[in-house]
Fold shikimate kinase.
Amino acid sequence: MEAMYSSLLQISPCAGSRPLGGKPHVAAEFVFNRKNFGVNWKGMSKSPCRSASNQWRKFLVLSQCCKDYQTPTLELRDFYASFDKQCSLKRKAQEVASCLKERCIFLVGMMGSGKTTVGKVLAEALGYSFVDSDVYVEKAVGGTSVTQIFNEYGEKFFRDNESEALQELSLMPKQVVATGGGAVVRAINWHYMKQGITVYLDVPLDTLARRIAAVGTNSRPLLHFDSGDPYTAAFVGLFTISKKRSDSYANADARVSLHYLAANMGLEDISDLTPTAIAMEVLVQIEKHLKGNGDISTPTPA
Ligand SMILES: Nc1ncnc2c1ncn2[C@@H]1O[C@H](COP(=O)(O)OP(=O)(O)OP(=O)(O)O)[C@@H](O)[C@H]1O
Ligand SMILES: O=C(O)C1=C[C@@H](O)[C@@H](O)[C@H](O)C1
């Protein structure tokens, strides 16, 4: 992170010295690499407001570069919009955190729904720790992967360990927990998870199957078949599982539907929803739930 800043700041003094049309300065290439300033740039997801002065310096460097290199201002706008969203998320997280009173958030949803990806962004914004309950079980079973546990000991053994993990996690404060996709099937798990706030990430099957096919089904034993193309195998498996689980997911305190969120944001494609935007919606839905419960008072109209 520091290295990134120093390479950014290094280019400042010589920014005006590069002749237009010449070979770009290495650091400048780095600066204008879209990926580094997109919403997925890891540095940006780290406490954006806390490092606001650094971000502001970077903004000034970028402005200078845009001027000197005649770079389209699109990068600068992307960068600024991304920074703005990170700050909005942080602000909303601070509001919600004061009402959560250290309670955990349990993210539930089908395999591939983004519990891990969104959970990490959410935890960072709230100042919570992030825990993946699958990883927690793997450690408890001596470092054996979920796939190995299924293959060697069977699903019941995994589910027993998953329940124990959820019980332990429910006793700890200030955590965002990405639960295993099947954690919702046992009633006792709901008892543990309801010690905190439960949020269902509702993602269309087609999106889930695409995501899972992109990374393969090796780490997801319930979707791993030897034949068929990965998308079809994942889709068919997810379809069967989701039919059995839809009632269970409905037990969650709050629901975030990517279908509705994308429509509300005017996006045609669900895959355009960033983890930051989804994390923001999780906070909005948690806030609604807390208001409904009387945990936050709704301002009375004047
Ligand atoms: N908003 C998003 N946009 C694009 N890809 C995403 C998004 N969220 C998650 N993904 C991708 O989808 C895949 C599954 O995401 P992730 O591991 O976070 O899901 P999960 O719900 O934790 O899955 P599991 O329950 O199987 O562990 C990953 O490859 C991740 O990069
Ligand atoms: O949906 C499920 O049943 C599962 C989801 C994964 O997170 C793992 O917990 C395991 O592969 C089972």
Notes: Residues 241 and 291 are 33 Å apart (CA to CA). The beta strands are 105-108, 129-132, 175-178, 197-202, 254-257. Residues 2-88 form one domain.
